[in-house]
Amino acid sequence: MTDQPQKITTLLADIATSLAVLSGRSPPPAPTLTKAAAYHWDGARSDLTPVPKVNRVALSLLKGIDGPLDTLLANTNQFAAGHGANNALLWGARGMGKSSLVKAVHAEVTKTATPGAPPLILAEINREDISTLPVLMKAISVLKARVIVFCDDLSFDTGESQYKALKTILDGGLEGRPANALFYATSNRRHLMPRDMIDNERSTAITPHESVDEKISLSDRFGLWLGFHNCDQATYLEMVEAYVHHFSVPVSRDRLRAGAIEWAQTRGARSGRVAIQFVRQLAGQNGLALKEPT
Length: 294
Prior knowledge:
Elements: H1 4-23, E1 38-42, E2 47-50, H2 66-80, E3 88-92, H3 98-111, E4 120-125, H4 133-141, E5 146-151, H5 162-171, E6 181-187, H6 195-204, H7 208-220, E7 224-228, H8 233-246, H9 253-267, H10 272-285
Parallel strand pairs: 1-4, 3-6, 3-7, 4-5, 5-6
Antiparallel strand pairs: 1-2
């Protein structure tokens, strides 16, 4: 029991250090990003955890989004080369490949990087940890690597104020974002907030336009707005056929098309997510698992 006070003292010191880091008074230790090309940010611990294998699909499998694909790929290549690049908001229809595109573009740019260039790191931050984004940005700022900070399914609900901190990091404040960091986010909402929240502000505020501008100006901090829309049947079938070919699932074209159309009808939607779900089901019915080709 003699070492119990020392343990308590050590624990209290660790807590004090963590609180100082989270409050921004003390920067977190500089991370060493040499174990992987992708990391997950743990806001509670102020730590970047390596992700050895990223759940991603090949860029060539993303159909029906040529415009956003070309734009994001060019922007990411510019950033990796140390040239001017913009924060990007990928918004729109569910299941159309927003987060898949971010991960696929990161893989593509990493694969084609110039030898000796600073590594391009993908660091995912949960929406719930957005309040710790300033801490993450400070940790990134001392690195030689170039880092894409990625938040999937970002949105804010009534009463939340975290969006104000995000605005400052993206394009404002004395520090702003580090030169070696870029922020990509996906959302079903173009302005990251529900329509009724914005309408509410308009109807109750003394100066409606100023209040609404405050709410929607967050999306203005993103230099790129990339819209994703529901696909037509031809594009959906192209997605299905691409997945079947990629994973070598044996099926006749007529049976494939009929089954894919019926599957989409039962789901009430056509999208890349619906396409891969159908192909996964089809593979299972044939006693197969979806494995990457060797």
